[in-house]
Amino acid sequence: MVVPIHNKKPHVARALSSVYAQSCQDFEVLIIDDASTDGSLEVVSRFEDARIRVLQRSTPGPGGYAARNLGICEARGTWIAFLDADDSWREEHLASVRRLADQFPEENFLGCGWIIKDEDGEREDPYYRLMREKGSHRVPLRSYLEHSLAGCRPVHTTISCVKKNDFVCSGLFPEEKKAKRGGDLHAWISLMCRFRSMAWSSHVGGIYYEDSVNMVTKTAPSSTHLLERDVYRELSSGLDRGEKLLLRRYFNRRLKTSWVGNFNRRAKNFYLPGKLYWRGDVVNSLRFSARTIVPRPVVMLMKHLRGRRSLKD
């Protein structure tokens, strides 16, 4: 398994303790220290185990993408599981993933359910709530895109698992694209477009903590590096017409989300209408573009009114 670390001292022990609590103990742990300065490695050193290998990078890379790629290259096993240093696994996660790999030997990419935890409590991810009764199953590319567009993506980094092969080892995470966020989503859609399907297990594998320190999702600005035309052309090569349309809609949704994120963070933004994929998705493109011309005070008032209505309900 690959665990990238960059200044996660308050959470590292929780993450590694969840690894060593696994019912399946046949694993290696690759800790990739991405130039931490807060004493994270001191916490790692308390876990004395021959299965741990610590690799160090001298310069931190955005989003931990370079760290994960290094871990992939150095991994000795066939399957590579990912765990972020501020998250944790449930005890049966690795055992359940192994059963899933045996059940679907043709698949290269595995996922399962997860828990989102914040200051208000815990909640199950939307795909798990929707599909858990179906049991473990194969997720084709078309279904992955349709569910992602509906807010029900069937995978999260901290419970994902990939088979080590030439495609994965060629740089699964986009360290060269200079994007500071969105690289995990790019890795998963790249795998889906390459292999056309994944397998999903109906177990809850881990917990994603939204209240962790030093979270890229809270600080880094969004960009369009991973949603440009050249990226779309590369991913869509070999897809059928319907899949290409869904991929364009998927890119549009991510572009809109990125623009809104920058707007909310008051970060430097991009011209959304010029980045959208209008062909085949005109209605959404018009709707998303209209969002960009609404003055900030109006937007903030609308959000305030929605908040008041939700409190009344």
Explained architecture:
The protein is an alpha/beta fold and 313 residues long. It has two domains: 2-219, Spore Coat Polysaccharide Biosynthesis Protein SpsA, Chain A, CATH 3.90.550; 225-312, no CATH class. Helix content is 44%, strand content 18%. The chain has 14 helices and ten strands. The strands form two sheets. Strands 4, 5, 6, 7, 8, 9 and 10 form a seven-stranded mixed beta sheet that branches. Strands 1-2-3 form a three-stranded parallel beta sheet. Helix 1 links the parallel strand 1 (2-5) and strand 2. Helix 6 packs parallel to helix 11 (241-265). The longest helix is centred in the C-terminal third of the chain and has 25 residues, at 241-265. The chain starts with a strand and ends with a helix. The model has no long low-confidence stretch (mean pLDDT 92).
Task: Give short descriptive properties of this protein.
single chain, 313 residues, Spore Coat Polysaccharide Biosynthesis Protein SpsA, Chain A
CATH homologous superfamily descriptor of the largest domain = Spore Coat Polysaccharide Biosynthesis Protein SpsA, Chain A
Which architecture name of the largest domain does CATH use? Alpha-Beta Complex
Order of helices and strands: EHEHEHEEHEEHEHEHHEHHHHHH
The termini sit apart by 44 Å
CATH class of the largest domain: Alpha Beta
**Structural class of the helix and strand makeup?**
alpha/beta
Uncertain runs are: none
- CATH third-tier fold name of the largest domain: Spore Coat Polysaccharide Biosynthesis Protein SpsA, Chain A
Task: State the helix count.
Answer: 14
What's the average pLDDT? Answer: 92
How many domain units? 2
How much β-strand is present in the residues? 15-25%
- Report the major sheet: 7 strands, mixed
What is the percent of helical residues? 40-55%
Number of strands: 10
Based on CA inertia axes, which overall geometry fits? globular
How many whole angstroms does the radius of gyration measure?
20 Å
